[in-house]
Amino acid sequence: MATPDFNSMSREELRQYMLDNRNDKAAFEFYLDKFRNPNNPVYPAPQSLEDMSYLQKIILQHQADK
C-alpha cells in the first residue's frame, strides 16, 4: 500500500486519516510537525508537591485566559 501524500491533505482530512489508521506513526508525526504551535510553552514534569501546586496554578490561569 502506498503512503498517502500528507502535504496535500487538509487538517481535517489528515485528522480523519489518523483516526482511520491509528497505527500509522508517520501520519501522527507529520501532523505534530505541521500543526503544533512552536510558541506554546513547555513545562517540565512536576518533581515535588511544590511543583505540583505550581502546575495547578498554571492550569487554572490558562483556563481563565480562554
Largest sheet: none
Tell me the number of structural domains: 1
Helix content: 55-70%
Separate helix tally: 3
Task: Tell me the total number of β-strands.
Answer: 0
Q: What class would the helix/strand composition place it in?
A: mainly alpha
Order of helices and strands: HHH
Mean pLDDT: 89
Quick one: overall form? elongated
- Termini gap: 43 Å
Using the CA coordinates, give the radius of gyration: 17 Å
Please describe what this structure looks like.
Pfam families: DUF6887. The protein has 66 residues and is an all-alpha fold. It has one domain (11-65). 58% of the residues lie in helices and 0% in strands. It contains 3 helices and no strands. The protein has helices spanning 11-20, 25-35, 49-65. Helix 1 packs antiparallel against helix 2. It is elongated, with a radius of gyration of 17 Å. The model has no long low-confidence stretch (mean pLDDT 89).
Topology:
Layout: H1 11-20, H2 25-35, H3 49-65
Pfam families: DUF6887
Summarize the structure in short:
The chain is mostly helical and 66 residues long. The protein is built from 3 helices and no strands. The protein has one domain.
Features:
66 residues, mainly alpha, 0% strand, DUF6887
